[in-house]
Design brief:
The chain is of the alpha/beta class. 21% of the residues lie in helices and 18% in strands. It is built from ten helices and 19 strands. Strand 10 and strand 11 form a beta hairpin. The two termini are 38 Å apart. The model has no long low-confidence stretch (mean pLDDT 96). One of its GO terms (molecular function) is flavin adenine dinucleotide binding. Its EC number is 1.1.99.3. Belongs to the GMC oxidoreductase family. Keywords: FAD, Flavoprotein, Oxidoreductase.
């Protein structure tokens, strides 16, 4: 029998970037907030001396424990049986306080203005027939002018380091980035010079790794990046990388209005007649069940967990790909990260062991709708960038095409190019299709007997064509940089391979919009089917852009926090 706990103003499910921002903003406004986090607690002390590549990068110390059911089943199409994803590969889901905000790289972009009204912009520019059969691009129900102030708020809190995008089509910033860009390196300089000669518009990648010491508007002071190369899959021991554990969560805790409960797995949202009364959760240390009653429920776990929790709670209409009806699980997208170019230099060596997760340069000439798609068989595009993340010794071992996968020649080429290989990546948009979606698996269950989430996803001709085009552009720049040999990606894209890591940039399943038949939440991230439930995360995206999602997730979280305060005042739907 579950024990019912005293009612609070707000219960937040999942305390990463979304949950941390929501908790910080609401507690500063005086609301009593309980944060329920499935994983373990963390403090900055947990990051000290954590430069252990084997432990964190290869054995996934900071990722969800798949043995406890924090996984999905996967299949390429509806005709196949889905099987459990048993070993981390294509994506890496964080677990514990801070979530994936603890182990991210810090690459920090605003989505493009057209991203928020993509369907309308495509139709205006090319006509509706440009979208292939099965593509389900939708507008987000929000405009650039409406979301820009929340991007500014996020950048000030995180202390983003960057510079204005020089492309003629780029929106001119109303405010400069809080900090100047990160250091120029021989690698980023080479990229910029080559891209400029080709007529493109390179600039430094915006970064949530601080370029200098910084104190944010909440009074949180952080040190500058030391370029130690341990960003992705690691917590930052210097505090230079923006992380919920070192930014928004301490602010919430300082108010005295925030109670954090770790090892607390929410299994259901309790609701009746269009309103939630609270959540049911399990204390994973004792096995006890509790009901936390609240006036407002905020779901901020992660794309797959948010969708799964709504489906398990029978909240919202599940998406049916055969009819195209329903919304929960609709428009699952990923990231097209296949059109890369590896350059091998016979006459140059680089210091590739120094770096940072968002130390890099890029062009946006082929992102969004900035270029002409009239004669192309894909829509949207990609950012093309080079990063100096710091090549840690286990994970990085690149050799030219045609080199055997083992043996004497493999060893020879590995040694020859150990410090002479550069990578240009094309991070492409992922657009939604009718038969790429999320639902509950009919066979496989987790440790407490609930169905796992089932992912049905595969690349489309849209993705293959985009990858081929971007691979050609990336190789063009790499050759202009002087590489003697170039491995060009994107030439022969087959089925989506869940075994190989690309990014953790999953999107959709709890999409936002103005139409309840096409979205789970309205533009304030308030559920259409439950007025006091707000769902926050990259699941709100109707599609993915050519950028990392974190800044857009954060901007939407700040807007949702404002929406929750509006709801507390007036009640009812906010639209």
């Amino acid at each position: 029998m579950a024990k019912t706990l005293p009612k609070v103003d707000v219960v937040v499910v999942g305390v990463g970037w979304g949950g941390g921002i929501i908790s910080s903003e609401l507690t500063k406004a005086g609301l009593k907030v309980v944060g329920l986090e499935k994983g373990k607690p963390r403090t900055t002390a947990d990051y000290f001396m954590s430069h252990d590549e084997l432990r964190y990068s290869q054995r996934y110390e900071s990722m969800a424990d798949m043995a406890n059911g924090r996984t999905v089943t996967f299949r390429h199409d509806m005709k196949k049986r889905a099987l459990p994803y048993r070993e981390w590969g294509s994506f890496l889901i964080g677990e514990g306080l801070g979530g994936s905000g603890m182990h991210w790289n810090g690459q920090t972009y605003r989505f493009l203005p057209e991203d928020f009204q993509l369907k309308s912009e495509i139709i205006k520019k090319y006509g509706e027939k440009k979208m292939p059969e099965g593509m389900q691009v939708e507008d987000w129900g929000i405009t650039w002018d409406e979301i820009e102030p929340y991007f500014e708020k996020w950048e000030a809190m995180a202390g983003v380091s960057g510079e204005q995008d020089p492309h003629p089509a780029a929106v001119k910033r109303k405010k400069d980035y809080p900090n100047p860009p990160m250091k120029e390196t021989p690698v980023t300089k080479m990229f910029k010079e080559a891209a400029t000669k080709l007529g493109y518009h390179p600039y430094h990648m915006p970064s949530s790794n601080l370029s200098q010491q910084y104190t944010n508007p909440d009074g949180i002071a952080r040190a500058a990046c030391q370029y130690c190369a341990f960003c992705e899959r690691f917590g930052c021991e210097f505090g230079a990388k923006a992380d919920p554990v070192v930014t928004v969560i301490p602010v919430a805790q300082k108010t005295g209005n925030f109670e954090l409960r770790t090892y607390s797995q929410v299994t259901r949202i309790l609701h009746k007649d269009g309103k939630a009364s609270g959540v049911l959760y399990v204390d994973l240390k004792t096995g006890e069940e509790f009901i936390q009653e609240a006036d407002v429920v905020v779901v901020t776990t992660y794309v797959i967990e948010n969708t799964r929790l709504l489906l398990l709670s029978k909240l919202g209409v599940p998406y049916d790909p055969t009819t195209g009806k329903g919304v929960v699980g609709r428009n699952y997208t990923y990231q097209v990260y296949l059109g890369n170019a590896y350059g091998f230099f016979d006459d140059k060596e680089f210091n590739l062991y120094a770096g940072a997760g968002a130390l890099g340069a890029q062009i946006d000439d082929f992102n969004g709708l900035r270029f002409d798609h009239s004669d192309l068989n894909f829509l949207h595009g990609a950012t093309i960038h080079i990063t100096q993340l710091g090549d840690r010794p286990i994970l990085n071992n690149h050799v030219p095409e045609g080199t055997p996968a083992w043996g004497e020649d493999f060893k020879k080429q590995s040694l020859k190019y150990a410090n002479s290989t550069l990578v240009i990546k094309a991070q492409g948009a992922s657009l939604p299709f009718r038969d790429n979606y999320l639902d509950l698996d009919p066979t496989y269950k987790d440790a407490v007997g609930d169905p796992l989430l089932r992912m049905t996803f595969n690349w489309k001709e849209q993705d293959r064509a985009l990858s081929k085009f971007m691979g050609e552009k990336a190789a063009e720049i790499m050759k202009a940089m002087g590489a003697n040999k170039v491995n060009q990606g994107g030439k022969n894209v087959k089925d989506y391979d869940i075994r190989n890591y690309q990014s953790t940039h999953m999107n959709g399943g709890t999409t936002m919009g103005n139409d309840p038949s096409m979205s789970v939440v309205n533009p304030w991230l308030q559920m259409w089917d439950a007025e006091n439930v707000f769902v926050v995360g990259a699941g709100n995206f109707q599609h993915n852009s050519g950028y990392n999602p974190t800044a857009t997730v954060a901007a939407l979280a700040y807007r949702a926090a404002e929406g929750i305060l509006k709801y507390r005042e007036k009640g009812g739907s906010l639209v």
